[in-house]
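User: Teach me something about this protein's shape.
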Amino acid sequence: MENRPYDLSQIMPAPPAVYHCLRTPVPPQIDGNLEKAVWQKAPRSSRFVDLVSGQPAPLDTRIAALWDETCFYLAFWVEEPDVQAHFSQRDSFLWLENDVEVFIAGPDCYYELQLNALGTIYEVFYIWQQALRRGSFFDRPEFDLYTREVDVLGGYQDSSRWGGHPRGKRWAFLDWDFPELKWAVRVEGSLNDSSDVDRGWTVELAFPWKGMEVLAQGRPLPPRDGEVWRMSFSRFQSLEAGGRRLEPAAGWALNAHGVYDSHIPECFSQVVFSLKEIEL
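Assistant: First, the predicted structure itself:
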């Protein structure tokens, strides 16, 4: 039987998570240390759940976010008793080992960022093929199909049941880098040493608003009070049982998608921006 596209009204086991992003009066220094006051005062998310079932993940993962006039700030707390990361070259396939991932969606596009415990990153910018036309918002040199490094994402991942997203295919711009992105990772334990027990690792990010212009597609930057952006926060973890690596890797996110597919913007969590400031 031919696979059919996702029925977006039926695949999710629960509504998307809602996270209220408060304003910070002091920009955090991006060093990976989440003991600083701004992150201790920022609202921390609920525990990540299985990407498909929505059951609580066995290892604790949470995020917090803040904003000011310059940047959107994001933090991850990642519990991991044996912190492992080996890919050191930028844009390596980090999902083949252990990583955390951020997706930020616009109306006709979305951005993907992956990071591992070494601080290596992987970035891709996706545009729905139907939206990339001559004279459109995306008709600009950075999205030229003839000169950029481009792939096609069909949107597949639970291919035994589903044929992909109803919007069809996406152009994947593999050489797009978020302008002036800042990031840092801190390991609480020993990296790539299985002889001891680690606490895990933390991630700290700063996304300048001026780099979000193409994602905003005309929306105000920074967002207005009460405005909602779709974002996904997830983690992929390589697990072993009985001396064998389990395939596929475990996928956990702030809310479930109902299928093993992290590329469904309609399933992304809702980040609600607020003018309320954290109290330091």
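Now, about its shape. The first strand starts at residue 4 and ends at 5. The CA atoms of residues 155 and 263 lie 7 Å apart. If you'd like, I can walk through any region in more detail.
User: That's plenty for now, thanks!
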